[in-house]
Amino acid sequence: MLGFAAHHLEVPGLYYDEVIQATPASEFLREGGRPLQIPGARNTWLFGGWFPVMTQAYMGALKSQALIPAFAAFGATRETLRLTTLLWSLAGLMLAMLWAREVLGLPVALLAGALVALDPSFVWVSRHDWGSFALGFLCRGGGLALVTSGWRRPSRARLAAGGLLLGLGLYNKIDFAVFLAAAGLALLIAAPRTVGAALGRCRDRLLCVAAGLALGAAPLLVALRGALSATRALLSGPSAGVCGWSEKLHTLAVTLDGSYFQRLMLAGGSFERLPQADAAGSPFLAVFLLSELALGARVLRAARAGRPLRAETFVLVTAIVTALGLLLTPRAARVHHALNLYPFPQLVVASVAVALWRARERSISLVARGLAVAGVAAALAGSLVVNARTLDTIRASGGKGRWSGAVEALAAELDGVPGAAAVSLDWGFHAQLRFTKPELELEEPIWALRRQRLGVGPIWSRDGTPQHLYLVQLPEYEVFDAGTSFLEAVRRLPMGSALIRTHEDSAGDPAFLSVRFARPHQLVYRRG
After folding, report:
1. With CB atoms 3.0 to 4.6 Å apart as the test, which of 58, 146, 199, 315 could cross-link to 227 if both were Cys?
2. For 343-367, how does the pLDDT look when each residue is reduced to its tens digit (9 = 90+)?
3. What is the 3-state secondary structure (H, E, C) of 398-453?
4. What is the pTM of this model?
């Protein structure tokens, strides 16, 4: 995994969602640092800096908090950021493998670990972490390992620590609840006696888990009302109709075949344009679907024979119910949502492969072993090929559109220019600029513009000088439409009133636009 993902950490350029939680960590350490100011963000003054508590109403600031020691030790750079999230994912994988060894045996744990470690979606999202996937995966693997070993020993300390990690996973991002609900239902189906014992004579163990979970999730639970209100507002907004089942199914498919990240690179970091980007995937998706059917048949056959396969049932049901839960979750249509499934698809494949290898009937053992080897080899080889192609795409392009290095090049250009100020009139600029050059004068009015468009905010206006640079996305990368309205107004002005400049990526292709006015001016936004 590190052989692919730890190389060329300097490309592509930083992405807005990649640094949205890194910026609060760097600002906490910077003298005169400022708190994150986007809807739902919460900070508290602590140890001489603004300590992040919530990133958004539905996302805690656990990633920001965990990045503070790494940035303090090695500097707030893109290389530190990307290598740190990679190591978080590897730690989560190690913990998930320890749990798998506990419940499914060492061969399944090793095989599933190899499948996850080379899975392209896992590799590249771990390196360019957004949606705070890496920490959520670490909490998932650690929570499963500690709760399982603590229940079997028994150990109240391990149970509480496992519950704490699961709670921190929920605090990290509210969609972690989908996995928790799926795992709870799977446990009820696979091991009803264990659940009965937890509610009866083993209530003290259950209370240890519950106390740890409540403690870890406490900051999010306090803000839960705000999170639900924000979700309702989002669903009632003008984009409420997007993210249907077809988009979610496509996301699940290209996440599991490993082509998601390369498609996103080719689409210039635009999730909206991702379905139009073409990239070859690995056979893992097909291997997983066939393995799911095979494991389902094996589980049912064992249940009828009175020898239930509890661990395999838990893995199978968790994978299926998590996928269904994601399909039912509003707007859960991105790769970091789909990765809530991991490592369960890989555990399904590994469980079936090991069972085929251990087939006892001589007449079918050779065929079974051949199928197991062929399926696993195809999945691993396909992942290696996709990883190599993805790395080539990153190196060759240096990043396109929203994921180019052009924003950071602009930051370097503005550095040291007296009175220079950058005003982001669309999503995708401000976080990178602030992380790269926090001393610049920066403004991101897009949230105020969006509130006005929804009819809940005042008319936005600002006075500017020729030193103010207004940043606008190209139409194909646009998120909010204020930039388009702004450009239309600028183009109606007399010749020479403003300069519209195209900023290019490393390959010379357009990345975004900027506008500079020739004289002092006032902008007023009256949409809504």
Report:
1. 58
2. 999 999 999 999 999 987 766 788 8
3. CCCHHHCCHHHHHHHHHCCCCCCEEEECCCCCHHHHHHHCCCCEEECCHHHHHHHH
4. 0.93
